[in-house]
Automatic annotation (TrEMBL), chain A:
A molecular function GO annotation: ATP binding
Source organism (scientific name): Streptomyces actuosus
The entry's keywords: ATP-binding, Cell membrane, Membrane, Nucleotide-binding, Repeat, Sugar transport, Translocase, Transport
Classification via Pfam families: ABC_tran (PF00005)
Lineage: Bacteria, Bacillati, Actinomycetota, Actinomycetes, Kitasatosporales
Domain ABC transporter: 8-245, 266-510
PROSITE patterns listed in its UniProt record: ABC_TRANSPORTER_1, ABC_TRANSPORTER_2
UniProt xrefs under NCBIfam families: GguA (NF040905)
Protein's name according to its UniProt entry: Sugar ABC transporter ATP-binding protein
TrEMBL record, chain B:
InterPro entries membership: ABC_transp_permease (IPR001851)
Entry-linked NCBIfam families: GguB
Species lineage: Bacteria, Bacillati, Actinomycetota, Actinomycetes, Kitasatosporales
Region of interest: Disordered: 410-429
Signal peptide: none
Keywords, sorted A to Z: Cell inner membrane, Cell membrane, Membrane, Sugar transport, Transmembrane, Transmembrane helix, Transport
Protein name: Xylose transport system permease protein XylH
Role played: Part of the binding-protein-dependent transport system for D-xylose. Probably responsible for the translocation of the substrate across the membrane.
Length: 515, 429
């Protein structure tokens, strides 16, 4: 690579937070017009590095230099970096739901005319930008009325409105389904043709393998290596090796299933959407779980898997219309979350930050929150038992924290997920429903979570895993149901499970003429 | 870790949630000392301390309930009106039907509970924001007070006045002090020693670090000193005075509610609801019931505060309880509660309330006009919360918290450890 083609060079960046060195002597070289991936486990320093680059951590709060288009850069804020054409799109989208697409694209950057907003120009330019990102919507559509995939595109259009030269995407496909992810990746390829450089941070290694030109791997705040995808013949296993510093022989722990009889059964479960009476989110779903079995639920966005799980869990979603639940041969009524917990159900939600955890809580408080009665006598909490139980889970689940008195907010994603798992293991469930249990979690922690799931089923519990990652379902589950728009469309055993079969069933209804 | 640092950490608690509170205790002590000097020793006289307690106990009682309302993520603007309404109903009932005073108090509590159930119903079961429900209640019950009392004052019988203006009787040998107050002080000292011992016991059972004995000793000495001082002051006032009955009611409530919010399932559910209502619901917490109980409890305490006030002023009037809600809310926020709910303690709110009360009292002693008093109180509220916001943004929890920071146990910066990616937590926070 020649000096001329280098767009960005970050030289020996070191950034410390009180008590922690987040980045130590990190180097990053990005060539003009390439797609550069940054990989690393959670906590490796990826986000911090990008915050240094975009000026969120202002010049002076770190050491080292940033050379961008041949010049030394000293960004004091995100506005300064945006003026230089560096735009970062965060995982949590920064859009105003009640405003239109056009308004969001030009938010803070409105086309003006005689002291007011030039609505005509705004709409026209929004349409142009939307064309560039392949978003076919009316610019006056409100953000809340479009899906998360399209919202992502609005963010990119917004970046284009700022005349972007270097686009940084932090976990862009984490919340997207397969179709939308594919569209986004195609889009990035298109940008490359047009000479726009992108930096992409992602946990989805297959995507990185497919799209990136070069990959920089970080580990523990250090640069491990930079790989050239074509020259080095990079594949997923190679990336994983760099990220974890060891060869992962398998991404799933060894496990010999010991499957018992059917103990949980749902028949003709039908649930109506909470706000629109015509829409059914579950249409006569029937399925069962055996003791010691890991059952997967595969489906695209809108398949109704989360809705199914939450409506079973004490009718926490939508309006119950009909259907029966049987446990150990007897019909049970689960009209509230308390009922569900009493009958041995546990639901680990897909969104641990907004509905899974109280982020103000200490680790120990979170762990016992779903069954306080276990540590109380006559309504009074026993702090010693609380502490001991939390310590036990900390050790057995290998939660990395100096103390269970720390706030959960301080933990990394994987450790937070372990706290949520502990919280539900503490309720002594017979059936655990895990909704996207490894979303946003690094490879090492994923492996551990799989191990925990396998330990649970070997104790004779049943586990339902809802996941959007097919390799995860195939590697982990004994049996997989597929769902499409509220209907269970198929059932595949471990032996027959392969991505193609599943994908066909997950989209089966799309091809049928009736819908 | 040097001994000084050890001492600081253990005396004031190194944890973030205590930091604001201990900061406020410093402020309280500073205010007391400042006024003590400024007023030439008037602040800490028996007479003045007794006056402060009887003058502000009802606001502090409101602050207890308000803390729980705010922790649950709501607000209650109606407490002043509810207090006034209850006061007039009780006064009128005792006047018209010559109701004996214990029945009067029972009636007042029932009125409070009914109002609370009414407001709780709208908040918890219909889902109208508490701000609106209680804003409506503020007008509703103020109007109710004036309707029932014909916008006039209604006197209350002598016996009833005891709960607001009464003192403990002088019994036992002539010690030169009020004996029941001395006895209370003794009980408080014993309780404090027992609590310290119990806390050490608990920490030992958890196999956590137990503070060295000498630290516990110093802490106990400071606290016992404060109790003994207060006891002698309250017991040593004018003949016939003591710790006011209203002060005793307040202390009992503070102890009971502190215990409830810290150590029981019900208390923890309030924090869970305020911290993340949806997560609490999905953990089996009965959201509606918690909201209902919190709102109802507030009105019962408001009724109690109203009766104490009426008893103290010997009559119920149309202007009773004006802007009490604001004093109570201010006390809670000065005491460290979060505007968004989920954080705060009863004891913090009491300290916050005392800061306001002593400020008020000291300025009045100095003859500062009520205009200036209002201005100063407003600024204190603003700066107290602004300080906290500013320090949170700096990644510290408070000035005290940041002073304590170097003394906290450092986290091992292990690979992919919890603290090795502080950005993530900032985003999350």
């Amino acid at each position: 690579m020649t000096e001329a083609s280098t767009l960005l060079e970050m030289r020996s960046i070191t950034k410390s937070f009180p008590g922690v060195k987040a980045l130590a002597d990190v180097n990053l070289v990005v060539r003009e017009g390439e797609i550069h991936a940054i990989c690393g486990e959670n906590g490796a320093g990826k986000s911090t590095l990008m915050k240094v680059l975009s000026g969120v951590h202002p010049h002076g709060s770190y050491t080292g230099g940033i050379v961008y288009r041949g010049e030394q850069m000293r960004f004091h804020g995100i506005r300064a970096s945006e003026q230089a054409g560096i735009v970062i799109i965060h995982q949590e989208l920064a859009l105003v739901p009640g405003m239109s697409i056009a308004e969001n694209i030009f938010l803070g950057n409105e086309p003006r005319r005689r002291g007011g907003i030039d609505w005509k120009a705004s709409r026209r330019r929004a349409s142009e930008l939307m064309d560039q990102v392949g978003l076919r919507e009316d610019p006056d559509t409100l953000i809340k009325d479009i899906g998360v995939g399209k919202q992502q595109l609005v963010e990119i259009a917004k970046a284009f409105a700022k005349d972007v030269k270097l686009l940084i995407l932090d976990e862009p496909t984490a919340a997207l389904n397969e179709d939308d992810s594919q569209h986004l990746l195609d889009l990035l390829r298109g940008f490359r043709e047009r000479g726009i450089t992108s930096i992409i941070i992602s946990h989805k290694l297959n995507e990185i393998e497919a799209i990136a030109d070069s990959i920089t791997i970080l580990r523990d705040g250090r640069t491990i290596e930079t790989l050239d995808v074509k020259a080095d013949g990079v594949n997923e296993d190679r990336i994983v090796r760099g990220m974890v510093g060891r060869e992962l022989s398998s991404r799933f722990p060894d496990h010999t299933p010991d499957i018992g009889e059917v103990f949980f059964e749902v028949r003709d479960w039908t649930v109506q959407h909470p706000s629109s009476a015509e829409r059914l989110v579950c249409k006569g779903s029937t399925f069962h779980v055996r003791r010691g079995e890991i059952v997967g639920f595969a489906g695209l966005m809108g398949a109704g898997r989360t809705e199914l799980a939450m409506s079973l869990f004490g009718r926490s979603y939508g309006t119950y219309l009909s259907g029966r639940i049987f446990k150990d041969g007897e019909e049970i009524q689960l009209k509230s979350v308390a009922d569900a917990i009493r009958h041995g159900l546990a639901y680990v939600s897909e969104d641990r930050k907004s509905i899974g955890l109280n982020l103000l809580d200490a680790i120990k408080t979170s762990m016992v929150a779903a069954k306080l009665s276990k540590i109380t006598r006559r309504g009074v909490i026993d702090p010693v038992r609380e502490y001991r139980i939390a310590e036990e889970y900390r050790t057995s689940l290998r939660i990395k924290t100096p103390s269970v008195d720390e706030g959960v907010v301080k933990l990394s994603g994987g450790n937070q997920q372990k706290v949520v798992l502990a919280k539900w293991m503490f309720t002594d469930p017979d059936l655990l429903i895990l909704d996207e249990p490894t979303r946003g979690i690094d490879v090492g922690a994923k492996y551990e979570i799989y191990g925990i799931i396998q330990r649970l089923v070997s104790q004779g519990k049943g586990v339902i895993v809802i996941s959007s990652e097919l390799p995860e379902l195939i590697g982990l589950c004994d049996r997989i149901y597929t769902a499409f728009e509220g209907t269970i469309t198929g059932e595949v055993t471990r032996r027959d499970a392969d991505p193609e079969v599943l994908m066909k069933q997950m989209t089966a209804m799309k091809k049928s003429p009736t819908s | 870790m040097s001994r000084i640092k050890d001492l600081q950490k253990n005396l004031f608690g190194g944890t973030a949630s205590n930091a604001r509170q201990s900061g406020m205790i410093f402020t309280l002590v500073a205010i007391v000392l400042l006024f003590q000097i400024w007023t030439g020793g008037l602040t800490l006289t028996s007479g003045n301390l007794i006056a402060v307690v009887s003058q502000y106990s009802y606001i502090l009682i409101l602050a207890i309930g308000m803390l729980m309302v705010i922790v649950a993520g709501h607000i209650d603007l109606s407490v002043g009106s509810v207090a006034a309404f209850t006061g007039i109903v009780v006064a009128k009932a005792m006047e018209t039907y010559s109701l004996p005073w214990p029945l009067g108090i029972a009636l007042g509590l029932i009125v409070g509970a009914s109002i609370g159930a009414w407001q709780g119903f709208w908040v918890a079961y219909v889902g109208v924001p508490a701000f609106i429900v209680t804003l409506a209640g503020m007008m509703l019950f103020r109007g109710g007070n004036q309707y029932i009392g014909n916008a006039d004052t209604v006197p209350v019988p002598r016996d009833f006045r005891e709960i607001g203006a009464g003192f403990l009787p002088d019994v036992g040998p002539d010690t030169g002090y009020n004996n029941p107050t001395l006895l209370l002080g003794l009980v408080a000292c014993a309780g404090m020693v027992w609590r310290e011992w119990k806390a050490r016991q608990t920490r030992r059972e958890m196999q956590a670090d137990v503070a060295p004995v000498w630290i516990t000793g110093i802490r106990l000495a400071v606290m016992l000193g404060a109790i003994v001082f207060a006891t002698l002051r309250f017991a040593g006032g004018r003949i016939g005075t003591s710790l006011p009955i209203s002060g005793i009611i307040l202390i009992l409530l503070v102890l009971a509610y502190s215990y409830y919010t810290r150590n029981t399932i019900g208390g923890r559910h309030i924090y869970a609801v305020g911290g993340n209502a949806r997560a609490a619901e999905l953990s089996g917490v009965k959201l509606r019931r918690v909201n209902f109980v919190v709102m109802m409890n507030m009105s019962v305490l408001a009724a109690l505060a109203g009766m104490i006030f009426v008893a103290r002023s010997a009559a119920s009037g149309p202007q009773d309880g004006l802007s009490w809600e604001l004093d109570a809310i201010a006390a809670v926020f000065i005491g460290g509660a979060a505007v968004s709910g989920g954080l705060g303690t009863v004891s913090g709110s009491i300290v916050g309330g005392l800061v306001m009360a002593l400020l008020n009292n000291g300025l009045q002693l100095e003859g500062v006009g009520s205009d200036m008093v209002q201005i100063i109180k407003g600024l204190v509220l603003l700066f107290a919360v602004a300080f906290d916001v500013y320090n949170k943004r700096q990644g510290h929890f408070s000035i005290i918290g940041s002073l304590m920071r170097p003394f906290r146990r450092e986290e091992p910066p292990g690979p992919a450890g919890p603290a090795s990616d502080p950005d993530k937590t900032l985003v999350a926070g």
